Amino acid sequence: MRNEMEIIFDAVSDNEGFARVAVAAFVSHLNPTLEELADIKTAVSEAVTNSIIHGYENLYGYGGPKREPADPARKDPGKVQVHCVLEGDLLHIRVTDRGRGMADVAKAMEPLFTTKPELERSGMGFAFMEAFMDDLEVISSPGQGTEVRMSKKLGTGEWIGSEE
Amino acid sequence: MAQIMAEDFQVIDNCLMIRLPEEIDHHQAGFISENADRYLMRKEVCNVVFDFENTRFMDSSGIGIIMGRYRKISCFGGRVYVIHADKQIQRILKMCGLNKIVEVLES
Which of A73, A132, B55, B80 has its CA 20 to 30 A from that of A90? Predict the structure, then answer.
């Protein structure tokens, strides 16, 4: 069976939790293992956080609901789009932003490489997406935004092996 | 999602104990680091203990928190400990090699 969903939300840090829980809920009827769910949530969290911090430079920072934009000339924090397709037990996730994009994708994907060490970003985001999903593809160009495509086959968790 | 509170930070002897929230992402990381650093500056704290007892989710922002605190205290001989980490969190710590610089205590 094929199933599809799409959410579009403001690029504010409050929505990071929402995005990963929404994707986890979308696949829940497949009875994924806890480990698979944790993997998907981590990967979505990394991709969405990247869009918010790096793509749109996190206009509203983090903190209480009464935050003011860091740059008064800019009101719109930007939008992040999360698009999921389930084909049988294969999950495809696409996280897209129209932010600043990257010139050197290969460099950005190196473990421990970060352009924001002052924010204590560990530089492990893409490494986590790669490790926790089966497939990862990143398409980006400066000024155009970034698209992260990931996929994962569900139902391959350990519990199947232990039942046999 | 419960926010981290003042009572989640406790100084016992020379250790700062931090009870981490249920979910650690970039949104939470800012509060945790900011508050932790306030304690690290103010008091005679040398070691930091991260308590993951209530934590069910962590992404790379959590790695940033631990690495950042480690950098701040290790040059003065301070140590970082991780307690009550479940399987998933231990896996993430191992993937980054953090288990080599912080002490992960089995409970």
Answer: B55
Residues of A in contact with B31 (CB under 8 A): 62-63
Check if B60 contacts A (Cβ < 8 Å): yes
At A10, is the secondary structure helix, strand, or coil? Answer: strand
pLDDT of res. B76 = 86
* φ/ψ of residue B81, rounded to 5: -120, 150
Q: Judge: A46–B30 Cβ closer than 8 Å, yes or no.
A: no
Chain B hits for A20, Cβ within 8 Å: 25, 57
Residue A31 known to be catalytic: no
At the fourth CATH level, the homologous superfamily of domain B6-105 is STAS domain (3.30.750.24)
User: Of A46, A58, A94, A98, which residue is the catalytic one?
Assistant: A46
Q: Where are the domains of chain B?
A: 6-105
pLDDT at A133: 96
From chain A, the residues in CB contact with B4 under 8 A are none
User: Could you confirm whether domain A2-63+77-159 is CATH 3.30.565.10?
Assistant: yes
Domains of chain A: which residue ranges? 2-63+77-159
Provide the token pair at B12. 């016992």
In percent, the amount of chain A with pLDDT more than 70 equals: 95
Q: Is the ipTM of this complex over 0.90?
A: no
Determine whether A87 is an active site residue: no
The yes-or-no answer on residue A121 being catalytic is yes
Average pLDDT over residues B52-69: 95
d(CA A21, CA A119): 24
pLDDT in tens, A41-98: 999 999 999 999 999 999 998 877 788 888 888 889 999 999 999 999 999 999 999 9
The amino acid at B82: V
CB contact under 8 A, B1 and A17: yes
Q: What's the pTM?
A: 0.91
